[in-house]
Every structure is written in C-alpha cells, then in structure tokens.
Design a protein that fits this description.
By secondary structure, the chain is an alpha/beta fold. The protein is built from eleven helices and 13 strands. The longest helix is centred in the middle third of the chain and has 16 residues. The relative contact order is 0.17.
Length: 287
C-alpha cells in the first residue's frame, strides 16, 4: 500500500490540486467579518484580499484539532502508513497540536505509522515539498527513505519574498505603523526570507522593479541546479507580477518548470495583497 500524504493550507496548493493527488488536507482557519472560514475550502484567497483592500482585518488560527483527530483516526483504521508535512512550527501552532493529537491516536492504534515533519517552510516552499512527497509516494519509495528525502527537501528550500504594502504587516503587528507610513511614502519594499522556519528581513529596497531584480540576484547566489527544478512562485492576488517574475527567471536561468498559485488566506491575512514569493532549492536533490 502506498504512503499517504497529509498537508495543511500553509502549503498554498490549490484545493483542487490536492484532491486530484489524493492528498489529505487540513485547512487553517481565517476569521473575517465575525465568521470562521476554512482556508481554501469555504473561502478563497481573492475574497480575503478584497476584504483587506476594503479595510477589513483578517485574522487566523491553526487547523482544527478535532479535524486532525478525525483524519488521523481514519488513516489509522485504514492501516495506511502516512506522512504529514506541516506548516513551519515558527509560524503556526498547527505542528505542535498535530504532535499531541498523534499521541492520542497512537494510544488507541499503537501500530499506526504516522510521521509528522516540521517543514519549517511556508507557502509554495511547503507546497513544492508536498508535491515531491506525493510523487515519491506514487513511485513506491520506502517509508523511511521518503521521510529522509522530504526532510532534506525542507532543509534546502529557499523562500524569498516581498510585500507590496507595509500597512498590512503593521495591522498584524509585524512592524510599527510609523515604519509602514514612512515606507509607503518612500515606496520602500522589504525583502524577506525564511531561516529555520522564521521570517527574517534581508534588506529594504526602494521600488518594485529593483525588488524583482534583487530576487533574481539572490536566486543566482543561492540556487543550485535551477534548470532541473520546479520553481515555485506564489502571489497575493497579483498574477501579473508572478508572470513577470517567471519571465525574468526563464530569461536568466532557462528554467522551464514552474508552479504558480495564489497565496491562501491564512498567510495572505498577514502579508496582504501584492505579496510576491519565490521558492527553489539551494541544493538540487535528485529523487
């Protein structure tokens, strides 16, 4: 029996894609207009971004522990070896909750084989890892080897991203309102990456075109075997920017394999419309 893959909506893969691949899905929760929505399931990213543009504040919380327990119990009853690749523990409590729920389920089903990996990845950085796990499972890779390979993918996944409007980071308490105001006047765009699962600022750049150029420079500095990889680009309801970045990467590196998707509500609620993120391996893994 092939290994079953589990993901959460921190991976920013379209719900339809996950269904096609038979990947079980745990949605994070988006709170908007006094209502709780399941990310990608009962609310789509554009609804979240439109609401934010209208001045509404979206908040988020981790995936439902009850849904986790239902899913893990169902998988245990089917005696299917499973791997859950979780959103970075530094950005959500979902991983820690999943570890506790796993222990509860194992008390009743001690033979159940379930590995939960703290990806320390986010958005399509996590999405590319989930895609690779699904591919390896379909190929019949042995359980321990798959877990080791996926852990390596997580370690070597680069995240480089920028936000278009500092106001949304200010609303979520990520930066001060004064910094957002001054940054807006000066057209300053922060460039960030993910280090050990945490969001870390790299530098501040004036003007969006310069940000794109710098993202390409960082890709050249950090990337390895780029032409052989699937390059991930996710965006906060700005497909035009994502396609422009794709064109620049094709021109610079000759890459031909891309996966482009919107950033979901759970991440977009903090980053805001116009966010643009780039993902690739800093060490190519042939698996």
């Amino acid at each position: 029996m092939s290994i079953h893959i589990v993901a959460d909506s921190g991976c920013d893969l379209p719900y339809s894609f996950l269904q096609e691949r038979n990947i079980s899905f745990l949605p994070l929760i988006v709170h908007l207009n006094n209502t709780d929505y399941e990310d990608f399931v009962t609310i789509d990213p554009k609804q979240v971004y439109d609401a934010m543009r209208n001045g509404e504040v979206a908040k988020t919380s981790q995936a439902s522990p009850l849904k986790m327990k239902e899913l893990f119990t169902e998988l245990a009853q089917s005696e299917r070896p499973s791997v859950y690749i979780a959103f970075s523990s530094q950005l959500s409590g979902t991983y820690q909750t999943a570890m506790m729920v796993r222990e509860e389920v194992l008390e009743q089903y001690p033979e159940f084989q379930l590995t939960i990996i703290d990806s320390k990845c986010a958005s399509l950085g996590l999405g590319l890892v989930v895609m690779k796990a699904s591919e390896l499972a379909q190929k019949g890779m042995p359980y321990e080897q798959l877990c080791e390979t996926i852990a390596a993918y997580c370690r070597h996944m680069e995240h480089i991203f920028t936000v278009d409007d500092l106001e949304f980071l200010a609303r979520g308490g990520r930066i001060s309102k004064t910094s957002a105001f001054v940054g807006g006047i000066l057209n300053i765009k922060p460039l960030l990456h993910v280090e050990d699962g945490k969001l870390i600022p790299i530098e501040k750049i004036r003007g969006r075109k310069k940000v794109f150029k710098r993202m390409i420079e960082l890709m050249e500095e950090r990337g390895n075997g780029l032409q052989k990889q699937v390059i991930g680009i996710s965006h906060g309801d700005d497909e035009e920017a994502a396609l422009e970045l794709k064109r620049m990467i094709e021109e610079k590196f000759g890459c031909t394999r891309f996966f482009i998707s919107p950033i979901g509500g759970a991440i977009g609620a903090h980053a805001g419309p116009g966010t643009l993120a780039l993902f690739f391996l800093n060490e190519y893994i042939d698996a």
